[in-house]
Amino acid sequence: MRVNWNKWKLIGLCVGITGLYAFAEARNEQRGISGIRVEFTEPEALYMTEATVNKLLIQKYGALQNVPKDAIVLNAIESVLRSHEMVKSAQVYLTIDGELNAKITQRHPIGRVAGGRDFYLDDQGKQMPLSPLHSARVPIITGKITGKSLEDAYVILKYINEDPFLSKNVIGIHIEEEDDYRLKFRLEPFVVRLGGVEDLDQKFDNFKAFYAKAAQDKTLAHYQMVSLEFENQVVCTKI
Fold first, then answer.
1. 86, 106, 126: which is the final residue of a domain?
2. Domain of 151: which CATH number?
3. Tell me: the pLDDT tens digits for 169-214?
4. How far is CA 235 from CA 34, 76, 179, 205, in A?
């Protein structure tokens, strides 16, 4: 029987390559973490720093430098980072050379509650603490803060943020009572009495039509109160 040496050579080569690959993989997994790199998706407005992230990891795991890569549980580290009050999401991965990378998206405030206890309202409608590192330029929420009024304020703020004209001009929401919300504008002297959060499209369309006409007539400074509470109407009070 003739032996097919080429076949056995090929098999031996495959076994050797597989063995070398497994050995290299095992050695690679035993190598320690070479360093930690923190990346923020929005670096222009930091409510936390790289030092904050490193401190959080040290408090939980100790120094990660030189810890074997096979001892690192990436999902667990992501959970630790997401537990921080300023973090919206976190993605953690290891590079080939053993660097631990953490990509962090911070929470995004859209309003600031001012009163007995100051805090932000974020883009998911959740309370967010203030940061000593950065102060967000967002509308100020004042007045009678309740669970419902905060939910309604969030609805109003989401609408404002999606509208270029309103996001540029509205600087505050005052809660007189639940379903009695009043908007303060950056330049105009009047207060816009919005009422509740129903029919916001119709209310703001009516307001923009009023504003355009009053701006053309140069009469914006003549008004003290602009009410949008009544269906399909804009009722104004002059100074």
1. 106
2. 3.40.50.11690
3. 999 999 999 999 999 999 999 999 999 999 999 999 999 999 999 9
4. 67, 57, 18, 14
26: tokens are: 């095992």
Q: Is a pLDDT exceeding 50 seen at residue 21?
A: no
Domains contained in the chain, number: 2
Find the mean pLDDT for residues 154-158.
98
Domain boundary among 53, 87, 106: 106
pLDDT at 63 over 90: no
Burial of 147 per CB tally in 10 Å (0-12, 13-18, 19+): exposed
| Residue pointed to by tokens 């330049």 | 187
Host domain of residue 204: 143-238
| 98-124 confidence digits (pLDDT tens) | 899 999 999 999 999 998 889 999 999
Is the Cβ–Cβ distance between 103 and 39 less than 8 Å? yes
Domain membership flag for residue 131: no
Q: CATH number, domain at 74?
A: 3.10.20.310
| In the predicted structure, residue 133 carries a pLDDT above the cut 80 | yes
